[in-house]
């Protein structure tokens, strides 16, 4: 995992724990959003938050399609997210 992908994944993980109250013990870069109880509505909210945080356009369904923080980070970096 590249350094930029790792940093974006860390932003996602931090958001999951601190804003969306996922248990830090349950969250990892490879955790499936669905298995943590992140439904499509929460992922839409997270997409809006990530758009603001990263300065890129994150479509409503992209996080759901990615499935996990690590895959979402890869997708976001491929769209130009830099941190």
Automatic annotation (TrEMBL):
Give every Carrier domain span: 1-80
What InterPro entries does its record include? ACP-like_sf, PKS_PP-bd, PP-bd_ACP, Ppantetheine_attach_site
Q: Which UniProt keywords apply?
A: Phosphopantetheine, Phosphoprotein
Against Pfam families, the record matches this protein to:
PP-binding
Signal peptide annotation: none
Stored SMART domains: PKS_PP
| Name of the protein this chain belongs to | Acyl carrier protein
């Amino acid at each position: 995992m590249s350094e930029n992908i790792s940093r974006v994944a860390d932003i996602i993980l931090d958001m999951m724990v601190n804003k969306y109250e996922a248990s830090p013990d349950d969250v990892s870069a490879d955790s499936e959003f669905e298995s943590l109880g992140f439904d499509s509505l929460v992922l839409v909210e997270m997409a809006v938050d990530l758009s603001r945080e990263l300065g890129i356009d994150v479509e409503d369904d992209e996080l759901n399609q990615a499935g996990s923080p690590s895959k979402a980070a890869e997708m976001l970096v491929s769209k130009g997210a830099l941190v």
